[in-house]
Specification:
The chain is mainly alpha-helical. Helices cover 53% and strands 0% of the residues.
């Protein structure tokens, strides 16, 4: 792969690289979000349930699809 810092587009502009946030900025952003809109906390059980359901559902689909 080419180094994005050295790449230049045909129109002469440089390619920008995506900056990945650290875990500290992610936690801080979560804190600001929960402080500004605390009703989001009510969605957390739904997030957990959806992850549980999809994992369970995909496991059952794969078990049926694969011959034993």
């Amino acid at each position: 792969m080419a180094d994005p810092n050295k790449m230049v587009r045909t129109d002469g502009t440089k390619v920008t690289t995506a900056r990945h946030p650290s875990w500290k900025t992610e936690i801080l952003g979560l804190w600001y979000t929960l402080r500004d809109d605390p009703m989001i906390i009510l969605l957390f059980p739904m997030f957990f349930a959806s992850n549980w359901f999809y994992t369970w559902r995909q496991s059952s689909v794969l078990c049926q699809a694969l011959p034993t």
